[in-house]
Structure formats: C-alpha cells, structure tokens
Design goal:
Layout: H1 5-10, H2 12-15, H3 21-29, E1 32-36, H4 42-52, E2 56-60, H5 85-96, E3 101-105, H6 114-118, E4 123-126, H7 131-144, E5 148-154, E6 157-163, H8 172-175, H9 188-191, H10 197-214, E7 223-228, E8 233-238, H11 260-264, E9 279-280, H12 282-290, E10 296-300, H13 304-309, H14 323-326, E11 335-339, H15 344-355, E12 361-364, H16 367-374
Parallel strand pairs: 1-2, 1-4, 2-3, 4-5, 9-12, 10-11, 11-12
Antiparallel strand pairs: 5-6, 6-7, 7-8
Helix pairs in contact: 4-5, 4-10
C-alpha cells in the first residue's frame, strides 16, 4: 500500500534517508510495537515511535496519572491527573500522529496474559519499573522469540540493551540470574530520578526499535550501554550468552512462564496485608510519640532532602546511608520504631541493628506515606 500525500509530507525527512526511503517507511508502518509501561521510559519511546510512523503501538499500563509523574512522564499533563495512563497516552499519541493505531491494554501484565498480548506485536519495549515484570517480559520474549528492547533508570544513571537470544545475544537472566533481595534496591519513588534521564534512555530504546524494524545499523544485541548523567559519559559492556542460563542456555530448564512475584520474593500488587513480625503500624508509632511512658523512641532513616519535604515533628534523623557509622549513637537496650518513606529502608535498618545486638527494634509499615494517609494529611506525600 502506497504512502498517502499526507504521509509523504509527514515523513519527508525519513524518505530522503537512503537507509529508510519509501520502502523503509512502509516497513515502519507495517511494524507493531508493544510498550510495557506508559511512564518515564514509555513516554519518549511511544511518542517518538508514533512520530516516526510505527503502524501499531500497544500500551500496557494499569495506573492512573499522578502529580508526581509529571516531572518526567511527558505523555501526560496536569489535566490528565486521575485518569488512566493508557487513555492519556492514546490522546497524546494521536495528537503526535493520528495515523498510528494505538491499542490499549489497561491491565497488569501477568504470566496468564503475557503470551496472548505479545502475540499481537513484532517488537517489545521494556519500560517496567519492577523486577517481577522485568523477568516476566524477558522470559516471555525469549520463549516467543520477540526482541526485547530493554531500558532501566535510577537517580542519574541508566542502561539500555536489546535482549534477543534468537538474534545471537544474551537474555536478562544471563546478566542477572537472580533478582536482588526485596527492599535492597530502592525504587524511583524512594531513590528519585532526574526528570530528563528517562528521556535519554527512552530515546535510545526508540532508536533501537526503529533500527530493528528497518533492519539497518548495528543494534545493542550483545552490548549493554551505560549512561551517567552527572559525568555525561557513556560506557559499553560486551555481553555474552550464558551457556548455563536456565532460559536461553544449552540445556534450558525454564520452558514456560512461572510465578514471578514469588521468584522475586514480593507479593503481587497490593495484596500483602500480613504484618511482618518486625513491623508496627503508624498507629503504634503515633502511640509511641504521644506517650513517652511507653519508652519507645522513633527514628527516621530517610535522607535529609526527604525530611525537608515531609517530616514528623520530634523524630530525629539518622539516614540509612550513614547508619553503619552512626548506629552507636543508639542504645542497644532502648526500644525503637524506625520509619522511612514506605518501609523498605526502615526494614533494612532493623535487620542491621539486630545484627549489632539490638533486641527491641521495629520497622514502621508504610513509612511516612502511611502516616500522611492515616494519621496526618497535612504531611506532604512525595
């Protein structure tokens, strides 16, 4: 099918590239791409792919737009707060290019629906922000022989690659055979991210997607590109398939999708309502602050810049990053409740203190986020 006069004008700067030309642009139009996530990485990926003329874009996301998203998620605007990210994405993408077909998958991608969704697309772009979904997409793409254009971001650093064993490279399990223990790697919500960083990494992912669709250039298959925004430096690591990989190795033991929440040691969604023995509620934290006779002190282990955003009056700060040097300021015989933003870092602090001989230390479940929701709405959420 020939390009229309409108398409000839729209894609003129592509058409004069020998590596693209008329046939290449038709190839882009006939390509379908699945974007996992309509957030920081998914925003630049989907917008540039739509602008470039990719024929069908699938968007998988189940979240609603929040104010804190807007610092980096350029698919969305202030007028979209509270609306599903998929709907917001479709409106933005159709403003960029009304010719693109946008297919919405407003659902959490799981082991039960991953194959069904992937079957509809040629290429997959991983814009996920959690390990369970990352391993799920890796395994699904390998088993279905779909190129997985991978990217991840954290604070000032990002990385990108094309994971495709059927094209001669490794898979994600070759790089990271096991997920990190739960809570040891802060999310962007806890660790922060420079707003422009997903734009840089996402644009690299979009570039790799277009090159694969066109069949031009040297892809990131077999290479991991590392970016440091503070130093403005790129580094490259050569990657090889692991012959012992349980998924893409010589004798694979993973031949179907598994329970990835269990594999990563996390509960699916928000279904985990069981209190850990080392946890207390924000109501118990409030009782400790209100009644000194209980003999329980509360410690904040967030970073100083976080305390400037939101704090509970009367709670001293010992950042987790300084804990190894400063824990001796605490009395091993004293009872402590420890809080952070959401509960991950405070649990790490509790485990560390127990290793040092502290007996009566507990982590505040949900951290200051739960405090703002359940105790004091005047405390800012971030």
């Amino acid at each position: 099918m020939e390009l229309s006069p409108e398409e000839l004008r729209r894609y003129a700067r592509h058409l004069i590239l020998p590596e693209v030309g008329m046939e290449g642009q038709k190839r882009l139009r006939s390509t379908s791409v699945l974007c996992i996530g309509a957030g920081g990485l998914g925003s630049p990926v989907s917008m540039y792919l739509a602008a470039a003329g990719i024929g069908r874009l699938g968007i998988v996301d189940f979240d609603a737009v929040e104010l804190s998203n807007l610092q980096r998620q350029i698919l969305h605007g202030s007028d979209k707060i509270g609306r599903p990210k998929t709907e917001s994405a479709r409106e933005t993408l159709h403003r960029v290019n009304p010719n693109v077909e946008v297919v919405l998958h407003e659902t959490r991608i799981t082991s039960q629906n991953a194959f069904e969704i992937l079957e509809l697309y040629h290429l997959v772009v991983d814009g996920t922000d959690n390990f369970a979904t990352r391993y799920l997409m890796n395994d699904a793409c390998v088993l279905k022989k779909k190129p997985n254009i991978y990217g991840s971001i954290f604070r000032f650093e990002g990385q990108a690659s094309v994971l495709a064993p059927h094209l001669g490279g490794p898979c994600y399990r070759c790089l990271y055979p096991e997920p990190p223990p739960p809570g040891t790697v802060p999310s962007c919500a806890e660790g922060g991210v420079l707003g422009v960083l997903p734009g840089i990494i996402g644009t690299i992912q979009a570039t790799e997607t277009l090159k694969l669709a066109l069949g031009v250039g040297s892809s990131l298959v077999g290479r991991l590109l590392l970016f440091d925004a503070l130093e403005m430096k790129f580094r490259e690591i050569k990657l090889r398939r692991d012959p012992e990989c349980p998924l893409c190795g010589e004798h694979p033991s993973i031949t179907e999708l598994i329970d990835y929440e269990q594999f990563c040691g996390v509960a699916p969604g928000n279904q985990d309502t069981t209190m850990h023995p080392d946890e207390v509620t924000v109501q118990e934290m409030k009782s400790a602050l209100d009644d000194p006779a209980l003999g329980i002190k509360v410690i904040d282990v967030r970073e100083p810049q976080e305390q400037q955003i939101a704090r509970v009056e009367g709670v001293p700060l010992i950042p987790l990053s300084q804990f190894a040097e400063r824990f001796r300021e605490l009395d091993p015989q004293q009872s402590y409740y420890i809080h952070c933003k959401m509960g991950g870092r405070s649990m790490q602090a509790v485990q560390f203190l127990k290793q040092q001989g502290f007996k009566n230390v507990k982590s505040v479940r949900g951290g200051i986020e739960a405090w703002a929701e359940e105790i004091d709405p005047s405390v800012s959420k971030y």
